[in-house]
Amino acid sequence: MRTTGMGTGTATRAVAVGVALAALAGGAVGCTVQPVDADGNGRSPVRIELPSGTPSAYRPSSDTGSDSDSDSGVDDGDGDGRRGEGSDAGDRPESVPARVLWSPGDSGRDVRELQARLRQIAWLFDGPTGTYDGPTREAVEGFQSKRGLPRTGRTDTVTWQRLLGMTREPGRWELYLMGGQPAAAPDARCRTGRVLCISKSSRTLRWMVDGRTLTTLPVRFGSDPTPTRDGVFEVYWKSRDHVSTLYDSPMPYAMFFSGGQAVHFSADFAARGYAGSSHGCVNVRDEAAIARLYEQVRNGDKVVVHR
Questions:
Q1: Do residues 204 and 216 lie in contact, with contact meaning Cβ atoms separated by under 8 Å?
Q2: Catalytic: 242?
Q3: How are beta strands 212-220 and 261-265 bridged, if at all?
Q4: What CDD domains does its record include (predicted)?
Q5: Can you tell me the distance from the alpha carbon of 275 to that of 68, in angstroms, rounded to the nearest whole number?
Q6: Rg (Cα) of the chain, in Å, rounded?
Q7: Is 264 a catalytic residue?
Q8: According to the 3-state scheme, what is the secondary structure of 20-84?
């Protein structure tokens, strides 16, 4: 019938309009039609794009097919549940400062090595003393600044590795260039009476009375052409302000024990440490200490020079 035909046409147009309106409404929230993929498989007819900042929806589990709540925040699109590049900066690992090995106030053998290595490359001119003092801090700061490291004055692992790469293992007398080394055990001949017990191996002098050590001092000896003599002697002459007639050099607090060889203060030893040597005498670098020793030692006291 004509009426029926008109109704059908009207209904058809109404459906078309409805579909168009639905499509427009879908476009307003970001719907897009997806074509088939390269294998001819159909895809979901629409993909919902949620506005930025919308909380993520439940994601289906690939194992059970059930929905599970994602606990990893916004997915970065690679399907592994990790946060993308836009995640909060607080979730990113922060750089860890290098571990500090030694800092001002520390002391010991390791600090001596640090100082000896800094001396090798002319960042430090004093010591080694074995104490992380002001000059050591300043030397470390200069070394760090020159190499673009954080200028802290503390020796951390990065600073230490850079220093190791530029220096060599210091020898024993670089570590104890200015003294401070431990004394060797006393020779058996030093265990009775009043004795200046002098060890060439440890480069030390012990002032001992009846087997008890009262004072220990670092000392320096003669070179190969003018060696200090080994053996058992005794102090035969003391001369507080002595000047050598052979070398025309001061020998304060001289205590003579073998010919022209004496225990005495040496300004050169105080200034250069074991970088130099004597003409055969036993040099002491601590003037205050040898001044006290000079007052205690008597003529006739024993002197033992041993290896």
A1: yes
A2: no
A3: unpaired
A4: YkuD_like (cd16913)
A5: 77
A6: 43
A7: yes
A8: HHHHHHHHHCCCCECCCCCCCCCCCCECCCCCCCCCCCCEECCCCCCEECCCCCCECCCCCCCEC
Residue 41, C-beta contacts closer than 8 angstroms, at least 6 positions apart: none
pTM above 0.85, yes or no: no
The answer to whether the beta carbons of residues 67 and 60 sit under 8 Å apart is yes
- The answer to whether the peptide bond before residue 128 is cis (omega within 30 degrees of 0) is yes
Tokens at residue 275, please?
């970088």
Which position among 190, 197, 242, 264 bears the catalytic label? Answer: 264
Q: How far is CA 261 from CA 33, 94, 157, 193, 226, in A?
A: 107, 66, 48, 22, 10
Determine the Cα–Cα distance for residues 187 and 254; give it in Å rounded to an integer.
23
Contact residues for 195 (Cβ-Cβ < 8 A; gap 6+): 189, 206, 207, 208, 209, 301, 302, 303, 304
Between CA 121 and CA 136 the distance in angstroms is 13
Rounded to 10 deg, the angle between the 157-166 and 109-120 helix axes is 50
| Whole-number Å distance between alpha carbons of 175 and 182 | 12
| Both tokens assigned to 81 | 């549940």
- Secondary structure element (H or E) that encloses residue 15, with its range: helix 2-28
The rounded distance, in Å, linking the Cα atoms of 113 and 94 is 32
Catalytic member of 190, 197, 242, 281: 281
Q: What is the pLDDT of residues 8-42, one digit of tens each?
A: 444 444 444 444 444 434 444 433 334 434 444 44
Q: Alpha-carbon dihedral of residues 182, 183, 184, 188, nearest 10 degrees?
A: -160
pLDDT tens-digit readout, 227-257? 999 999 999 999 999 999 999 999 999 999 9
How are strands ordered across the β-sheet holding 261-265?
231-234, 302-306, 194-199, 204-209, 212-220, 282-284, 261-265, 250-258, 237-243
The three-state secondary structure class of 211 is coil
Contact (Cβ atoms closer than 8 angstroms) between residue 274 and residue 176: yes
